Structures are given as structure tokens and as C-alpha cells.
Prior knowledge:
Chain A is α+β, with helices and mostly antiparallel strands. Chain A has helices at residues 2-16, 18-55, 76-81, 135-141, 181-186, 192-198, 217-227, 236-273, 277-289, 294-326, 333-336, 354-371, 373-380, and strands at residues 59-65, 68-70, 72-73, 86-99, 102-109, 119-123, 130-134, 148-159, 162-177, 187-191, 204-205, 207-212, 231-235. Chain B is built from seven helices and eleven strands. Chain B is globular and about 50 Å long.
Amino acid sequence: xxxxxxxxxxxxxxxxxxxxxxxxxxxxxxxxxxxxxxxxxxxxxxxxxxxxxxxxxxxxxxxxxxxxxxxxxxxxxxxxxxxxxxxxxxxxxxxxxxxxxxxxxxxxxxxxxxxxxxxxxxxxxxxxxxxxxxxxxxxxxxxxxxxxxxxxxxxxxxxxxxxxxxxxxxxxxxxxxxxxxxxxxxxxxxxxxxxxxxxxxxxxxxxxxxxxxxxxxxxxxxxxxxxxxxxxxxxxxxxxxxxxxxxxxxxxxxxxxxxxxxxxxxxxxxxxxxxxxxxxxxxxxxxxxxxxxxxxxxxxxxxxxxxxxxxxxxxxxxxxxxxxxxxxxxxxxxxxxxxxxxxxxxxxxxxxxxxxxxxxxxxxxxxxxxxxxxxxxxxxxxxxxxxxx
Amino acid sequence: xxxxxxxxxxxxxxxxxxxxxxxxxxxxxxxxxxxxxxxxxxxxxxxxxxxxxxxxxxxxxxxxxxxxxxxxxxxxxxxxxxxxxxxxxxxxxxxxxxxxxxxxxxxxxxxxxxxxxxxxxxxxxxxxxxxxxxxxxxxxxxxxxxxxxxxxxxxxxxxxxxxxxxxxxxxxxxxxxxxxxxxxxxxxxxxxxxxxxxxxxxxxxxxxxxxxxxxxxxxxxxxxxxxxxxxxx
Amino acid sequence: xxxxxxxxxxxxxxxxxxxxxxxxxxxxxxxxxxxxxxxxxxxxxxxxxxxxxxxxxxxxxxxxxxxxxxxxxxxxxxxxxxxxxxxxxxxxxxxxxxxxxxxxxxxxxxxxxxxxxxxxxxxxxxxxxxxxxxxxxxxxxxxxxxxxxxxxxxxxxxxxxxxxxxxxxxxxxxxxxxxxxxxxxxxxxxxxxxxxxxxxxxxxxxxxxxxxxxxxxxxxxxxxxxxxxxxxxxxxxxxxxxxxxxxxxxxxxxxxxxxxxxxxxxxxxxxxxxxxxxxxxxxxxxxxxxxxxxxxxxxxxxxxxxxxxxxxxxxxxxxxxxxxxxxxxxxxxxxxxxxxxxxxx
Lengths: 389, 233, 345
């Protein structure tokens, strides 16, 4: 009951000294909200990258060209298809293009091989000179079915040091939505033949997506490798591992940088938590005269800090959720998602889980407790004689 | 009467050994009897407040011994001194020292918080005391809404809430009007009648006449004392 | 080093606690030295005031360490994808076997010592003249060095953990016939040790709990000093240690395989991962063992004529908590064994 009384007294103190409480909570939230939001975005992007990997092919085949990925003959897809265990071999053309000065990803696929996870919001599969665009990019550029769009690929000429880009005009035949919202932000789909012609790579494609029967990947990889040792093979398992470790590292780098912010927050908390110290001196002195032990004052101050840190942690988590989910992560989305602007036009992927909640509470408590050691102690050891002065 | 507080050769030196050293008390010896009404008198700066602070265990003497009920508390830890204060000593300050933002009953119940007494019981005990001091209707009021006399009675209630046997009042008449002084005198007489020991630091003439013993301090030294048998040097 | 969210946070925490522990070590030793001198009232107040700062720092360290204990295991778990061959936390610890193993030993030791110190401080707090003041600050300076060692160790461990080529995970360690827990059991019991483990586990826990219960009832009647109480507390600690060894063997050999419903997999790290409720079961067992040993340490460090009467009441309480924790852990294990398998395995 004694601890409960001290906890209650701490809560009443926070209620009475709102300014100090608000300062500590604001300071903690200012640090924690971007951190939690960023972690949620990273987790969201990782999840979507995972979805992309899982819904993609089992093997991606390219040629080794001086250590880089090189083009593969389009006809190779037919040869690959003949290998035992291969279900489907799809020649693809993928590349970076510029649309209205904005970078986008162009993916050329045979008409029958469009991903089944795509759902058309408007229109349908592309016809001749037709393209299909994601909902995000359509919103960004104000496109609708039937809109015409010029796509630039390569520099045609340089006149007076100014590059002139070759452009071709296409008609939007459909707008799609996808399980992975990032896809909709910058992806443009067209028929593979049209993409081959746009990129001027007749007879070649950028890669071949190979779909394999369950448990036969190892054998198929061996067979492909045997066909030509210059083939570069990337399996789903490699992609999966790259996604996990890649995003883990990204998160780690971000956290490592953010740790500097946390470290600077400790002296900040030290200053803020001592706010109102002179006003409190007499009050603590009175408590001491009436028989409060220094331990009890210390416990009450500890509870005050705990309550403030718990409020700050909960508030930070809620604010991050609102920022990301309801406002679509303005300003921060672009930092973590390639191609996203300050006000992302597509729904940014984010995943809020127990991990962000745990980290929110963890950092809030660690920062408040370690930052307020000195001020808490200074408050608790105010001599009772202070009340008589 | 049996003695309750004994000070033996007490020295209180602030900033000892430094150029700005202050000797607040010098080699002071006195005893206070259980159930007595004792006044510590003397001009401003004579060391009255320092002496009652030491007797109230708020401060430690620099040298010398102090015992309460025959037990030397000079070697007591900070925690033990706090516990002693909580159980046995009630303190009323010169300017009442009520906590702003807390209502009257909350102020009165402050010493009960670390005792682990539930809030309902704390409120009952505090309002009961306020009632006996004629402040029943002011229980929910904050100190800012009260007169000087009312605030003092709230401070007295806070000093009594733990049922201490020693009540110390520091210059209790300095901030109240004449009517309130007589009311205060009645309260102190009532406390004495309950068998409590009252120690007051004051130079208020009307209180001096009611004391069992008056100690006179000048520049930190005891210059004499007067009891019912007359003045002694 | 392997850089991810958890390793970055763990580095931050080890730096913060390391700095705090260093300050704590220096100041607590100074207080120990100062408190031995003949002090004036003001000097004594100053020393006491500084002691509160150290107490608060110790509490903050305890909280941070408590919160970062699960974080340490999350950190190990987060490293699984980086280390070839690692399938659970155990595999990650095999990447740096000595540092990984030491980390898991030093952390419980830190908790045990901080807990003992807090108990000692609370005991001293209830006295009039704080007779344990010097003792507790000497103990705190030693304890701070252990905390500092833990933080430095974490720092070295985290920064030196590399993506190694290959490690052998739990299956190639705990599931082999020559595994440690089996070798010990064979040498003590014989080849058919498996059928005796559960009876041993229940008997040893029952004996320990019965001993603690009997001691709990005897405490008010015991003399406050002398060999009988030391003997009693030492017997309790010895029984708790023997019980700990038997329980560890039972956890690996019987409880983990049954709870995971994987009859040939004997990894408690996997058990914690697959059945998180077993973390509580293990934590309660550790807490119960700690309570028994805290009682002995508290008696040895907190014995003084001013503390003895309260000390007996405390020992009684500590044994009560030990009974509660060990009993609950045993009940939890039994429920898991009934639900997930059968007791006659």
C-alpha cells in the first residue's frame, strides 16, 4: 500500500506540475515518434519485399557480363522450359525509365504472364502501344485509361551540351492495384515485345524468370549451370536471405545513427527533468519534515519519471501510428522508400508490431531513468531544513 | 516531570573551517520535560530556529549529543531520524508551509502517505482533525483560498495527524492577527492537556505567560531560563 | 560486426550501463573509505546524501539490465539469418562460443548480486544507526565492477560477432549421444538414465521445497546467531544448487523434447522460442534458486546485533518466496508435461 500511495502521490505531482511533465513528454515524443515510424516503415517495406520475393519466380537467370548482370537471348526461355522440373520460363525486360521527369520502373512481360496478384482498378491488359500503370503513379501524374504518356529511354543526341532523350508515346490501357503498395507507386507494365523494342535490345531480354516444381530447385539450378557456366542464377532462397539481412542492416544503420540522437537526449532529459527544481525545494523540505524518508521521496520521483516515460512511450506509439497510417507518413516516407515523395501518392507500407511498442517503452524508460538520475537525486536529498528557511 | 528531550553541549557551526563560518549554537545544554509547554525565546538571529530544528531532528548538531526519551540520536541514520520524526514529532512552521495545489485535507494527510494508509482512511483522519480545529467546511479548499489563521490551523492539523507526543511550533504568532493568537493559545493548551510536549520558538508576550519554562537564547548561547519558580541565569 | 536494430540498441545500452557502472564503482569505493572516518554531523549528512545517488544509480542499472535481458535474446535471435548454420539462438552463441557462453553466465550473476545488494540495503534501512553502511558500499563497489565487466563484455561480444562461414546449431550439439547432459546422467545413473530423470526432478524439487517449508516454520524459533542457522542456510543453498543441476538436466533431456513435441530434440533455446510460456517457467525456477541463495548471502553480509531480529523475519520471507517460485515453476512444468506429452515418458 505504501508503494501505491507513493505512486498516487507521484501522479498527483505530475498533475500539479503540468509544465515539467509536458516538457519531458514532448522531448521524448519528439525523439521517439520518428524512430518508431521509421522502424514501422522499414518493417513494412521488408514485408512487401518479402511478398515480392514469395510471389516471384523460383529462379532468375541472367548472363554474367564482366561481373554484372547481362542480357540473355530471349530464345533461351524455350530451352529452359525443356528442363525437367521447370513449370514455366518467362522472358522479362526490366529497366529504369523516366516519365515526366520522374524515375519509374518498366517491366515487360509476355501477355499471359502478368502477375496474378495484380488487380485492375480500371481497364485491362495492354494492347499494341498500350501500357498498364500502377494506381500510385496514375494518381501522381493524373492518368486515366486512354491517357497518353511519353516515355523516355536513352539519349538520342547531344546538341550544345544538352542531351536530347528519345521518347515514345503510349496509351494507358489499364490501372492496377497490388498486394504490395510500393509496386503501384512507380511500376509500368507493357508487353515484353514492346519493351524489347523500346530498349532496342532485339533478340534479348534482361532476365528469364523460371518457375520450378516444388523441391526441384536444386536439380534445375544444376541443369541450367551445366548448360552454360556464364549464367548467373539467383534463387528465391538467396533473394529471401538478401531481403532479411539487407533490411536488418538498413534498420541497424538507421538505429546506430539514431542512437546518437538518444545519447544526446540523455543530457536534454537531465536538463528538462530538473525543471521547476527551485519551486520544488520547499515542497520536498516539507515532506521531509513531516517524516518522509529520502528513500520515499526518491521512490516517488522514480514513479514520476516512470509515469512520464510510460505516457511518452504510449503517446509516441499512437502518434507514429496516426502519422503513418492516417496521414501516410508525410516527410519521412520518402527517406525510407525509394521513389516516394514528401507526401507519398501511394499507401506507404508500414508494419506496427509488438517490437516497436517494446522499443518505444524500452527507450522511453532507459532515457528517462538514466537522464533523470541527477535531478531525481538532487530533488530527493533536499534537506528538511529547506522547509524552515 | 520525566525529561523527553536532552541537549548536551550542542554546537551548530555552518560552513565549519571556512572563512564564512557561522556559529549558530555554542555548547548548549538544556532539557525539556514530558508534557511541558516550553518556549525558546530570544531576538532574531539568536539561534532559536536552529535549536528547534535540531530538537525536531531536522538538522544534526555539528557536535554534542541529543537524546529523546533517553536514547542518544546523534548516531542515528538519516532514515532513522525521518522515522523518528514521523512517529513522534509534529512541526508547525512560521509561514505554515502548506503545499499549493493540494486541498486542506490532502495537506493534512501528507505525513500518512508513506505510512501506507489507504486514501479513504487518510481522508477520514484528516477531515476528523480539521473538524476538531473548526475547519470542517474548509477541508476541500486549497491553501490559497484560506486566511492566515485557517492556514495555521491546517498546519497544526498536519503536525498532529500522526499523533506525535512532541509538537514544535516555529514563531507561530508572527503571521496571524490578535484574535487568532488567542485561538492558537487555546489549541496549545488543549494539546498540553492531552499530555503532549509543546516546544515553541517565539517572543510573543502573551505566550510567555502560559509556558512552563522559557529558555532565553542570545547569539547561540543559553543566557538563562525562567520557570514557575522564577528566572535563573 | 553484425549490424541490425537489436545489435545497435544493445551497444547503446552496454555503453550507458558501462558508464553508470564505472561511476558507481568509483563513488561507492570512495563512500566506503569516507564512512570509516570520524565524521561531523554535516559530513555524515553529505556522505549519506551521496549514498542515495549511488542507490538510485544501482536501481536504474537494475531496471535497464532487467529490460535489456530479453533484448539480449532478441538480439541473438535477430542474428540467426546472418550466421550460416544457425537455426536458433544457440547457433548464434556458437559463432563466438566463449564470449556467447560467458554472456549467458554473467547476466544472471549480475542480477543475483544486484538483488542481494538491494536486500542488504533494505535491511540496513530498517536500522537506527545503519551498521551495514560500510559493508554495503564495499559490496556495491565489487558489484559495480561485475556490472562494468558485463557491459564491456557485451560491447566486445557485439562488435566482434562476425558472419562466420558455418556453425553447428543445437541439433548437432544437444541431440548427439555424447551430449553433456547425457554424459553426466550416464556417469551418475547409468545407460538407462532417461527413465529416472523425471522421478529425480520431482524428488529433488519436493525435497528442496519441503526443506524450505520446514526451515520457514523454524525460523522464529532459531537462535539468531551461531552455527545452527548458518548450517541451515548453507544446507538450503546446497540443496538448491543440486536441484538446479538436476532441473537443468531434466529441462534438456525430458521437458524440452516433450513440450516441443519433438522427441529427439533437446534444446531449451528452441523450447523458449516455440513455447514462450516456458520462459516464465524457467524464470520462476531461476528466481526460486536465487531466493534461497540470497538468504544465505544476506545472512553472511547482514549479520549485526542491530539487524538480527529483522534478519530472521527476512530469511523467513525469502524462503517463502523461494517456495512460491519453485512450486509455481514445478506446477507449470507438470501442466506442460501433461498437456504436451505424458509423464511416463
